[in-house]
Design brief:
two-stranded antiparallel sheet
């Protein structure tokens, strides 16, 4: 289990969209949509969903968790 916590989204729209703080917007089921592309050619590989734990583990380990 990850200890990483995500902060509340800033109220300011510019800070939300262009700021340096990652504050994902999880849906009512606690999921966020993620898109995986090939690093070489940008080809779409997968669209999936992550919960907060999967996203935190992905950021901590550098390996995608879904």
């Amino acid at each position: 289990m990850s200890s990483l916590q995500f902060p509340e989204a800033p109220a300011d729209k510019k800070a939300l969209e262009e700021g340096a703080v990652l504050s994902p917007r999880f849906d009512a089921a606690g999921l966020v949509t993620v898109v995986v592309t090939d690093a070489g050619d940008g080809m779409l590989l997968m669209v999936a969903h992550m919960n907060a734990e999967a996203l935190a583990l992905t950021l901590e380990t550098g390996i995608a968790h879904y």
